[in-house]
Amino acid sequence: MRWAVGVLPSWNDCPAKSTILEFVESVTSPGDSFVPVAERIATLDNDGTLWCEKPMYVQADFIMRRFLEMVREDPGRAKEQPYKALVEHDTGWFADIYAHVPELIKGVTEAFEGITVEDFEAAAASSSLRPLIRRLLCPTRRLRTGRW
């Protein structure tokens, strides 16, 4: 896979990356799995293969962690939504999330009000999220079995 040097440089060196690169190699090189250029279709979307959906989207985990930080900073927030649902583990509230869009928008706006791009990047790269991000970027079970 000479062509793969430098491909996906931001990915961890893990089985998921290797599996994807091996697949691309197999369908683009002469052999049993070769697919002619005119017949190749690539679809990358939120199907769970390259974008974590389970147990939840990475962005949802990130914002929920931020909401909990905000409650620790100001315990009074635990009396209002969306913080209240998170603190009380109210899965019913989250299950009906479309009914709570205004509260969620308010919470996200408050969570990142005044934050700089640099501060946001630092929070996203924090040590508390790094193991989660590594697991999510290398979902080997999904790639091998097609299920979680």
> What is the percentage of strand-forming residues?
under 5%
What characteristic shape results from the CA principal axes?
A: elongated
Radius of gyration, CA atoms, in whole angstroms: 20 Å
Number of helices: 8
Mean pLDDT: 77
- The poorly predicted ranges are 132-148
Helix/strand order: HHHHHHHH
Largest sheet: none
What report would you give on this structure?
This protein is an all-alpha fold and 148 residues long. The chain has a domain at 58-137. It has eight helices and no strands. The protein has helices at residues 15-28, 58-73, 83-87, 91-95, 101-112, 117-124, 130-137, 140-145. The longest helix is centred in the middle third of the chain and has 16 residues, at 58-73. The radius of gyration is 20 Å and the shape is elongated. The relative contact order is 0.14.
What is shown here, in short?
This protein is mainly α. The protein has eight helices and no strands.
Q: How are the SSEs ordered, and which strands pair?
A:
Blueprint lengths: L14 H14 L29 H16 L9 H5 L3 H5 L5 H12 L4 H8 L5 H8 L2 H6 L3
